[in-house]
Amino acid sequence: MKIVLIALAVMLLPLQLLAQFKLSGRVSDVAKGDALAGASVVLERTGTGVATGPSGYYEFQSLPAGDYTLKVSYLGYEPEVRQVTLQQDERVDFTLRQQALQTGEVVVSATRANAKTGTTFTNVSKAEIAERNFGQDLPYLLEQTPSVVVNSDAGAGVGYTGIRIRGSDITRINVTVNGIPINDAESHGAFFVNMPDLASSIQDIQVQRGVGTSTNGAGAFGASLNVRTIGVNREAYAEAVNGYGSFDTWRHSVSFGSGLINDRFTVDGRLSKVSSDGYIDRAFSDLKSYYLSAGYHGKTGMLKFVTFSGKEKTYQAWDGVPEDKLETDRTYNGLTYENETDNYQQDHYQLHYSKDLLPRLNLGGAFHFTRGRGYYEQYKYDQKLSKYGISPVVLGDTSIKRSDLIRQKWLDNYFYGATYALNYFTENGKLNATLGGAWNKYDGDHYGEVIWARFASDSELGQRYYFNNAVKTDFNIFGKANYQLTERLGVFGDLQYRTINYEIEGEDDDRRDVTQQVDFQFLNPKAGITYEVAGGQTVYASYAVGHREPVRSDFTDQTLADQQNGVRPEAEALYNLEVGYRLRGTSPAILGQRARYTLDANFYHMDYDNQLVQTGQLNDVGSPLRTNIKDSYRAGVELAAMLNLGELVELSSNVTFSRNKVKNYTDYLYVYDADYNVEDIVETNYSETDISFSPAVVSAHKLEVQPLRGFKAAFLYKTVSEQYLDNTGSAARKLDGYQVADLRLRYTLRPSFLKELEVALLVSNLFNAEYEANGYTFSERYAGDATRYDYNYYYPQATRNYMLTVGVKF
Predict the structure, then answer these.
(1) Residue 513 pLDDT greater than 90, yes or no
(2) 115 and 253 belong to one structural domain
(3) Final residue belonging to a domain, choices 188, 208, 227
(4) What is the pLDDT of residues 259-304, one digit of tens each?
(5) 508 and 524 inside one domain
(6) Whole domain around residue 211: which residue ranges?
(7) In this structure, are 151 and 287 located in the same domain?
(8) Buried b / exposed e along 400-437 (16+ C-beta atoms within 10 A)
(9) Which residues contact residue 655 at a Cβ distance below 8 angstroms, ignoring those fewer than 6 apart?
(10) How far apart are CA 23 and CA 16, in angstroms?
(11) Which of 373, 553, 643, 772 could form a disulfide bond with 794, CB atoms 3.0-4.6 angstroms apart?
């Protein structure tokens, strides 16, 4: 009998092995048919689950025959459960209905663009952010979007990083998180080093290029980054990510979420630590952060508290590498004092409320508070004691008026306010209108202290040598509306009124009185039109006007004569035309997969009036000045395309061709005598020249394949043409063009005891290119010498480097 049973089992075993089937399908929106990427598809009671890909498809391989319970869920949609009897390969599609659950998106959507606003934008999904996130600062996760150029002071994307979009730096890019302004009220900068690993708590990002739609905070003069943090996660989760890479880079992150408790309450949190020695000598970074949110979500109302914080300590690599060191020591750092560091902590608190007032009328609002404080420490050689309010040291007949010393420059500030949005839409969808705005106030102290001096004289410990306070109040109100004239033709209008009051009182670090007060009032109209040519094809056009007030340094660095005469830097204006074409479509099956493709083509013209730029002019103490230039412009064509073959292959590519010019530009070159006093100023006039840091060609390309289930390999390629360090277009003062390739590998497993286990490897600068992505320059001449001496400084980026991460989801 045993022999018979064994023989029977052996005969049936091949049949059992062959009885393995595939269960697949697509998840989409029941109303629009749009794919729902990232939807959760779970085989209940088996511990097996997958997430849908970019095209909404899911797939289970090698399932034994039998009965299964299949559950599909997606944020904002009613979950659906199906019983499936598997006797052969089966395809089961799901079309989900939106669920009546208030998620608070009223506040965010008020400042976002959509397909009907006639503006140029790119949406970056949570899945795309996650696959790009290896612990670098947020700009590096956006590097593949059109017209973007990024750079890192330390060279490897950890620490102080920069981003330019269409040639405009971060001080001209409006940044909001959940509709709350992030840009510093005075400098207009957004310092992502103060928000390390925020990407791990982001739901999505919208990048608007150009003026875009009305937003809160600093004026958008190149682009806007609209960031939305974690939404409603219906299922409980926990995740841990640990990574190690070149330059002793470490990344540790732990995230968790409660899921919906009693179908109403959610709690999400994260702790992160990122550290790196940096590519540049001593350019280390030690970054810590947290994120926490707790919310109540009803059918008609939502109340959500969000807080996140970052604490950073970075060794200064701000000075860059002198040009003559590039060939012999690309990692050179001229700073050697062991605590030449930047130390800053920034805490953000947001309270969001949304309520459906009527079936087609909803209200969203938020209160926010940001606390920032910190300093950077410097060792300064042979300083005049009088500059620091310290008396000379008198030793007999000798008077010591200079000393080596260590100083700290402090910022201690508060930023708080409220935003709101009232949204109305008609039942037939023809009209969608929003009334929104914000009131924000900044109160910040700037001061410096001497904490050590070789010759201290009568100074006190922590000798304070300057102090000034700045208060800035910013109010804006806007109204915007989309209206469908016909089924295919829609129009868009947007009008914003913004007023600013800015007051500074006290002395700056040169002990110059910078007390002043200024007011600005701006009216920013925008209009657009969209037309659906055919299924999946849309053309659009928009015209927008934006204004931007000068930054703090434009006021504090003025010459003494200008301050005494009441001469102030003028506000900048931007007139922005956007004309574009969008194509979205699918094709018959290719290689067994239905192809999805997109094409975007956009022409832009950005005409600036009174743009503030450096011209070589200096103030009374030798600091560079920015002055208004009457006429400058940026014009270009942006092309982007994507082809997706399900989970098998995805190819995407974008390229920008642009022309960036200043008209009637005057460059100033100072001539010094033997005692370094200004003897003359040489002026050179240009009828038209290139705007600095504005490459004519920028492109990004990605080829991603999935040769094995769960294994993805992506090849990324970035090109940036040459850029100039100043506005003269001189080959003696420029950044060479560069091409950089990255390789990204991800392998995902779903064992029975874990929701997901992922191992990922990023090889940056695969071909070991030596290049510089940023820099600065200044020039001078000496009396009796016709030679122009240029002093160029560069920020070399890391050669080939690696980052390996292991992520576990429960």
Answers:
(1) yes
(2) no
(3) 227
(4) 999 889 999 999 999 999 999 999 999 999 999 999 999 888 999 9
(5) yes
(6) 105-227
(7) no
(8) eebbebbbbbbbebebebebbbbbebeeeeeebbbbbb
(9) 638, 639, 640, 697, 698, 699, 700
(10) 17
(11) 772
